[in-house]
Amino acid sequence: xxxxxxxxLLTQTGPGTPMGDLFRRYWLPALHAEELPENDCPPVxxxxxxxxxxxxxxxxxxxxxxxxxxAHRGVSLWFGRVEECGIRCAYHGWKYDVTGSCVEVPSExxxxxFCSKVKLTAYPLVKVGDVLWTYMGDPAHQPGLPExxxxxxxxxxxxxxxxxxxxxxxxxxxxxxxSSHVSWLHSGGLKSDxxxxxxxxNEYNLNDLRPFFExxxxxxxxxxxxxxxxxxxxYYWRITPYVMPSFTLVPPRGDHPVHGHFxxxxxxxxxxxxxxxxxxxxALTPDERQAMKDGHGVHSRNIPGTYRPMENRDNDYLMDRxxxxxxxxFSGVRGIAQQDASLQESMGPVVxxxxxxxxxxxxxxxxxxxxxxxxxxxxxxxxITPPGVDPAHHRVRSAAVVLPQDESFIESSRExxxxxxxxxxxxx
Amino acid sequence: MTAPLRPILAxxxxxxxxxxxxxxxxxxxxxxxxxxxxxxxxxxxxxxxRVAERPWRGARFLRAGGGAxxxxxDELADADVAIMIGTxxxxxxxxxAIARACxxxxxxxxxxxxxxQLEVAAAVSALRPFARNLMVTEDEDxxxxxxxxxxx
Lengths: 428, 152
Prior knowledge:
The structure holds two protein chains of two kinds. By secondary structure, chain A is α+β, with helices and mostly antiparallel strands. Chain A has eleven helices and 19 strands.
């Protein structure tokens, strides 16, 4: 349960809000790199943290992310032409470069310096891995570039997809921290999904539906351990890292790739979900890559040409009661991503947390909210840099390990929970 | 087999989940939990003394470690969650006794160990078998945070 004012504090990310200020201390995914595939390609509208922006790639390959609207008459630059190292407004030809500087006002005399006085808000846009990242805060506080392992490995080892979720970012993120729903909502996928099936870990998962949970602090956020009984007085641990503000990793299964999510607020009622799979030591196989494109694992199958999932709220998520009855899916919705999204969207755009009834197995969610609130207050009141900004905090991994019952999952898994280039992940 | 009925009203399909609709969701009052908070050592007792000063819906705070004598069968009679608070000196035997009594009665157990991860490792190990949900934290505020979230 959260009080109304705390719920609003955590869920509102527009300009000038405390949580918005927090998000503006981090590099955030702004676009999938495939959205700007070549120089002078069409521009893309981007809404992030409630700000409407336009992204483009100029004639020299530089990425720009600037205010969507022309300074002249407020026309959307999406209708503009990307040409000769800038984007030109379709209305009267005003032209801007990737820094947002106006470089040409055709109606002014040739030797006019008027355009030097016109500048649109602009944010840096940098490609790291398959993602174009932006930093929307004060340049004086701009941190080093992201060092998440999924974006650091070779291109053949990683795959990223993107989907639109019609809910506030926090209820989406909380699904990524909450391991306790997996044995129920996603039970069908553990048996059949090509990116999950056939591992020893799945047997532990399905044989023990009442896991114990342990939450521990991490430099950048949290580690949430879910333990189930294994053989010989041992525990099977699935360890989920959460890096603030909105990055989560799913514990791996066997030699399947590792996956996770970045939850980015579009506005207070919509979220971009960047979903990735990577393998630390080998290329993804053609079959794995195809399965990801087909919406298996934690990816979605999207309506072609969009990032909207095929199963969405306009079609009741293509509910299949027969598949539900047969046990192929627990909820009747196909695919892990939309199984989650369908339920999180059903809560309403911003769930009213004054009415929820948490139980102690929600400890990870409780602690994540508390960390977010404290970080927001520390930044607002004392200017303290929040956890997860330092790129060193990004170098985490999820893990699935079997440990003796008396061992700490954190201490025994320190190395397993640290991203180490060229070293395989710890997985069962 | 008959074809499944398709919803014909906007309020009978997923599109009904709007902000406007959410304002009118049935608002039945939610009862609190009957929570018992046990301090497993002296330092934890100081913490729960401070936390107990806040207004709670019915949570009760008890000292369990260090030889404190409790009539668990009485204390647990109407409880539905038991939260054990400990530090590096947490009394594992007390945790075991509480957890066993809770298990017999189907009462959920949770544990909060306060302190730096390495310093409280032994206490965590002692509590691990008995707390279905365990949090290791350096932040004393987490005790109140968890109780508030649980409507204790």
